[in-house]
Each structure stands twice: as structure tokens, then as C-alpha cells.
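Bumping my old thread because nobody answered last time. Still need a sequence for this structure:
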């Protein structure tokens, strides 16, 4: 693993803002305590409330954003209202407001507003069975409006969050591409250094060879000059190589995009690029190269999805396509990568549903011989 200190998390006051909205739970709680309750109602009320808090935390604190979690939170809030209304009464309307705010935390504004309108209609249902009187509109009306406002506002907040994440990813990719461009520059410099220096060494070596018998002293001087030039060139090469060694996963992704674009395949990188241990990055780059080569040659795919994320203490690289590869026999490239991963304590899994999915698990720490295996 790369020996670097962990990133220091900075405290952001707005991360605690969702705690402020939990104050609306005071309404169902006060409604529950307005008279004595049997044990069954106690168990039901606190069980439903605990479940709601778990869903709320997943959406707003653990940032389980997206349509699936938003729909789950909305549905649970609606269920909590339906289950608790007969026992607690109008105080549980707070759950419908929460449902409106949660459904907004996904990408589709139409879905957010239509389901928020549905919650508003559910709020009005007790008027039809006589549970509410007309004067209840004094408190119910603002709740209806607030449900719609919360849905739209949280949708806007979600879109802003996604935009910020994409901007950060683009910035990270730009930085990595700039680093790759610098490496390419060093490679060109290295070529220039070696081309000139090796030409001088060849000329002086030939001259020393011709002078060996006629003028041994001058021949020895030429050999010493060859030695000096060689040492200087070695230092220059080492300096250049230190910046050039290992183009890394970002450069391999750039090459993959060029190859896939040429083949008419859309590339989707679904996770931000992160710093990886050197051996992990080298192995991941080799696997990505092999996977993209197979996709271009055999898969007849239209889209490819690539992600790499920390899991456990190690990292997981996933390459998925929508082609026709399925579970066809593996070639020597994938077989070799499977052996390399096994040698460093990793695994490679291949699935063939709806295309081909390669999932490589890289360990947290790799053995001392892993680098030689990767370079083999």
C-alpha cells in the first residue's frame, strides 16, 4: 500500500442539517403520548419509528441517493402513516411530509412532484370519512404546501449534489490527464536523450577501437570519455524514468476510450478515479487493457461500464459490457490475468448474464513478489 496519511475529513455544518427536520417527529410522538397505550401499540409505534429513522439516515446521512432509495423511503413513509393514523391521528401527517422530501432526492423531477401530490391527496382523505373537520385545514393546508415545496427543494439539492460530484470527477480526470501528458513529454525527452547520447557513444567506441593499436593512450582517453558520457546519460535517464514509470490506470482508461470510440462503443466510468497502491494500479491497468481488447474484438457491445472502488481494505475493479460475449471460453489473456491475481491474493470473477462482467478483487496488501508477476 502507498504510505500516505489518510485524508482529513473537514466538518461541514450543513451535513447536520437533516437533523433539524427530525423535529417534526415531535407531532406523532406527542400524539402518541396524549393518552395511555396498550403494549401492542407501544411496540408498533416505536418499531415503525425506528424503521423510519433507519431509512431517513440511509438517504440523508449515508447518501444512498437515487430512485431506488427515494422510492423505498417514500413508500415506507406512506406505510408508516397508514399504519399509525388509526392509533395516533393527524400527528402522523409528518410522515407524509417526510415522504415528499425523500422522494425529491432523486433525478426525476416529474416523479418527485407526482408522488408528492399523491401524498397531499392522502392527507386530504380523512375529510371524506369525517376524521377531520373544515377547521383542520388551518394546519393541514400549510403541511400540504410544505410537502410539495420539500419535494422540489430536495430534488434541486440532489441535482446540485450530483453536479458537484461530476465536476469533482471531471477535475480529477483533468489532473490525471495532465499528469499523463507530462509523462508523455518525459518519454519524448528520454528518446531524444538516448538517441543523441547513444550516437556519440557508438562513434567514440568505434574511434577507440581503431586507435587501440596505433595510439593506445588516445584510445584509453576515448574509452574514459565514453564512460563519462554513459554515466551522465544514466543519470539523465534515471531522472526521466522516475517521472515516466507506470502510466497508471488513468492513462489506460484514456487509451480504452480511444479504442472503444473507434469501435463505436460508449464508455461509462461510474466511479471517480482514486489513488491506488502501485501494484494494484499496475494489475488493474493490465486487466482493463485485456478486457477492452476482448470487448473491441469479440463482444459486439454498444456500451461498457467501468468502476473501481475500495472494498474491505482492498479494491474492486468491475468491467461490464452489453455485448454477446457471455460465457464463451476464456482466452490466454484472461487466464493469465487470473493467475497473476491469484498470485497476489486477488480473485477474478466472470459472469455472462446480458453481456460479460469481469470483477477483479485486489487485496489490501500484496506480497513482495507481486511486482515481478505483474511485469511478467
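Sorry it took so long. Here it is:
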Amino acid at each position: 500500500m502507498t504510505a500516505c496519511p489518510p485524508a482529513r475529513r473537514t466538518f461541514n455544518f450543513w451535513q447536520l442539517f437533516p437533523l433539524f427536520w427530525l423535529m417534526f417527529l415531535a407531532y406523532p410522538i406527542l400524539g402518541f403520548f396524549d393518552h395511555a397505550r396498550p403494549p401492542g401499540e407501544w411496540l408498533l409505534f416505536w418499531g415503525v419509528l425506528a424503521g423510519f429513522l433507519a431509512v431517513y439516515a440511509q438517504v440523508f446521512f449515508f447518501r444512498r441517493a437515487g430512485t431506488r432509495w427515494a422510492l423505498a423511503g417514500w413508500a415506507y413513509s406512506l406505510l408508516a402513516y397508514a399504519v399509525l393514523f388509526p392509533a395516533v391521528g393527524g400527528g402522523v401527517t409528518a410522515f407524509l411530509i417526510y415522504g415528499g422530501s425523500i422522494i425529491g432526492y432523486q433525478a426525476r423531477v416529474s416523479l418527485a412532484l407526482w408522488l408528492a401530490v399523491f401524498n397531499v391527496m392522502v392527507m386530504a382523505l380523512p375529510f371524506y370519512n369525517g376524521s377531520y373537520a373544515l377547521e383542520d385545514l388551518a394546519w393541514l393546508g400549510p403541511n400540504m404546501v410544505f410537502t410539495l415545496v420539500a419535494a422540489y427543494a430536495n430534488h434541486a439539492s440532489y441535482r446540485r449534489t450530483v453536479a458537484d460530484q461530476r465536476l469533482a470527477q471531471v477535475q480529477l480526470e483533468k489532473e490525471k490527464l495532465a499528469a499523463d501528458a507530462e509523462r508523455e513529454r518525459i518519454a519524448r525527452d528520454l528518446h531524444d536523450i538516448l538517441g543523441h547520447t547513444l550516437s556519440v557513444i557508438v562513434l567514440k567506441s568505434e574511434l577507440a577501437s581503431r586507435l587501440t593499436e596505433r595510439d593506445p593512450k588516445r584510445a584509453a582517453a576515448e574509452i574514459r570519455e565514453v564512460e563519462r558520457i554513459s554515466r551522465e546519460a544514466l543519470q539523465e535517464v534515471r531522472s526521466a524514468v522516475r517521472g515516466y514509470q507506470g502510466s497508471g490506470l488513468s492513462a489506460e482508461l484514456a487509451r480504452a476510450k480511444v479504442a472503444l470510440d473507434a469501435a463505436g462503443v460508449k464508455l461509462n466510468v461510474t466511479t471517480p478515479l482514486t489513488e491506488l497502491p502501485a501494484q494494484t494500479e499496475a494489475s488493474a491497468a493490465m486487466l482493463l487493457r485485456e478486457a477492452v481488447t476482448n470487448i473491441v474484438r469479440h463482444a459486439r457491445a454498444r456500451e461498457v461500464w467501468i468502476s473501481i472502488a475500495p472494498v474491505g481494505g482492498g479494491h474492486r475493479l468491475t468491467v461490464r459490457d452489453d455485448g454477446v460475449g457471455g460465457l464463451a471460453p476464456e482466452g490466454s489473456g484472461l487466464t493469465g490475468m487470473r493467475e497473476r491475481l491469484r498470485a497476489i491474493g486477488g480473485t477474478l470473477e466472470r459472469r455472462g448474464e446480458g453481456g460479460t462482467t469481469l470483477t477483479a478483487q485486489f487485496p489490501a496488501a500484496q506480497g513482495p513478489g507481486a511486482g515481478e508477476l505483474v511485469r511478467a
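The chain has twelve helices and five strands. Let me know if any region looks off to you.
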